[in-house]
Specification:
By secondary structure, this protein is of the alpha+beta class. The chain has one domain (3-15, 35-279): 4-Layer Sandwich (Deoxyribonuclease I, Chain A). The protein has 5 helices and 12 strands. The strands form 2 sheets. The protein has a 6-stranded mixed sheet. A 6-stranded mixed sheet has the order 5-6-7-8-10-9. It is globular, with a radius of gyration of 18 Å.
Length: 282
């Protein structure tokens, strides 16, 4: 079974795909021709652990709730992965606590350590207050951390969902680019990202941990297609951050950035970025 089909089936079984969503609290109605507001966030949650390396899902749920975002992209998400996250479904639990829909896109999906146990999975996720009408787990170039002597090869974990915000479809992508000092894998990942996103039309939002600063040469091709929302503030490490490697980026012609900020928190080893957007009608 494909990862895309599996993701969609999970959403259907949970009653989350195709369900009717209540509008987010405080979202005002807008008539024809008026831009539609959308608050998004991106957060590398460090598999549920804070800057202190203590797993604390209560702490992270509280931090995510305080962002009051309509759509959240998460990186480093465990689903029954291991002892570091208490074998819990971190994506599902956070969605339940926040009363949001979830689409999880595994990067790794490994056999369980004991027969009959759930698969061990690690990847990225999208949480949404709005209805998810489609979900897909795309492959991009990766250098696996799970096999000896890896070589760059296509692997899943570039998540995409389509949500409807007051009737407007929005493509939301969540990604986690390679962390190594050698940028060659990120160069390939950026090319893959642009190819995948180019196949879609309309409003697009890219959320992720890019593991590179805004002026990194390997990221330059992205800025031909997308607007980097900013801000000019570091996101990593969470305690005394020195560089911005976490991003909200939007399509140039159909989404406008109204405001953006980095939240000060030690609930992960990264700080989250939250952005207020305007979805333009055409």
């Amino acid at each position: 079974m494909s990862l895309r089909r599996r993701t969609v089936e999970i959403l259907i079984a949970a009653g989350l795909l195709g369900a009717v969503a209540a509008p987010p609290a405080g979202a005002a109605g807008h008539g024809p021709g008026h831009p539609v507001p959308l608050r998004v966030a991106t957060y590398n949650i460090h598999a549920g652990a804070g800057m202190d390396n203590v797993f604390d899902l209560d702490r992270q749920a509280a931090e995510l709730r305080s962002l009051d975002a309509d759509v959240i992209g998460l990186q480093e998400v465990d689903v029954r992965w291991g002892t570091r996250s208490e074998w819990r479904d971190v994506a599902g639990e956070l969605a339940e606590r926040l009363h949001m829909r979830v689409s999880f896109a595994p990067i790794y999906s490994l056999d369980p350590e004991t027969p009959g146990a759930p698969r061990r999975e690690f990847g990225v996720a999208v949480l949404s207050k709005y209805r998810i009408v489609n979900a897909e787990n795309h492959e991009i170039t990766r250098l696996s951390t799970q096999v000896p002597d890896p070589v760059p090869a296509p692997a899943p974990g570039f998540g995409e969902v389509v949500v409807r915000v007051k009737g407007l479809p929005v493509h939301v992508y969540v990604t986690h680019l390679d962390y190594r000092a050698d940028p060659s894998v990120r160069v390939a990942q950026v090319a893959d990202t642009r190819r995948i996103m180019a196949a879609d039309q309309g409003r697009k939002v890219l959320l992720g941990d890019f593991n590179a600063t805004p002026d990194a040469p390997e990221l330059a091709p992205l800025w031909a297609d997308l607007t980097d929302a900013g801000p000019d503030a570091p996101t990593f490490p969470a305690l005394d951050p020195v560089e911005r490697i976490d991003y909200v980026a939007v399509s140039k012609t159909s989404v406008r950035v109204r405001d953006v900020a980095v939240a000060e928190t030690l609930a992960s080893d990264h700080r989250p970025v939250v952005a207020d957007l305007l979805l333009l009608r055409r």
